[in-house]
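Have a close read of the entry that follows and walk me through the local backbone shapes. See right below:
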Amino acid sequence: MRNLDCSQEVPNDFFDTVLASKRNSNKDPDYTLRVEGYKPNVRLHFDDYNLRFGSNTLVGINPIGYNGQVRDDLLKLYKYDNSVIQKLKTEITTSINGRIINSCQNCTINAVNSLDHIVPKEEASEFSVHPKNLFPSCSQCNGIKNRFWRENGQFLFLNLYTDSLPNLQYLFPIVNYNNGVPEINFSINNPNGIDGHLYNIISSHYTRLDLINRFILDADGVVSDLQYRIHSLKGELSRQQIIDSIINYENAKRANNGYNYWKSLLTIELVNCKALMDFFFLPKVVGI
């Protein structure tokens, strides 16, 4: 999990570009004209969003609460496969070295195939195409979040544009090796003194997205990958050299994918499990 840079699009200009990409239909020849009429009020709320985004106080924003045709018209602006929206997605998911980050940073499990509305569009249709309100996500995380975003004055999920993830470990893999099979679990803890407010959001994010169970379901792939890597290096390096090489590699991945990137942390915990490494390295006794 890592922070992403938000779009540099000017929100008012982006709204205009999206609106210009829409077309009136024979059934609704006045659609774009109606939306033009909403713009002055929407832009006032854009100004509030921009200020709160900059100060990381979006949790206190008060949506207009449009309903009826106005709400429907504003929601109609957003369509995931719209070319303008897709261009925005490409901008957000392109790293400074020009590579596409195609994994959902809400979970780091699935591929990006949707844009999550940080302030839900169902509650705040005026922000349906505000560029800083759109975050690349998988449909699974997007569906779980749905309309839930704040409770008791606190975000329920991380805003990975504005909540700076700490370079302190809070995700801890647990590996027990029994009867030839590694048993894997994870815990979320704060032994390293992460700011309490931020840690509460991190804990809520992982809990509500059910990330621990989703990591466990994907953990066999990490174990298999580790076994293949060890097998490919045996005969070239010593056991300790292989372990050191894997740990160094995974720590380098954490620098790019996030300090608490679950696959790297799990791999490091696995290679530090002596019983599992004995199974991978010691010669197998073949029955006669």
About this structure: The chain has two domains: 11-147, 171-281. The two ends are 49 Å apart (CA to CA).
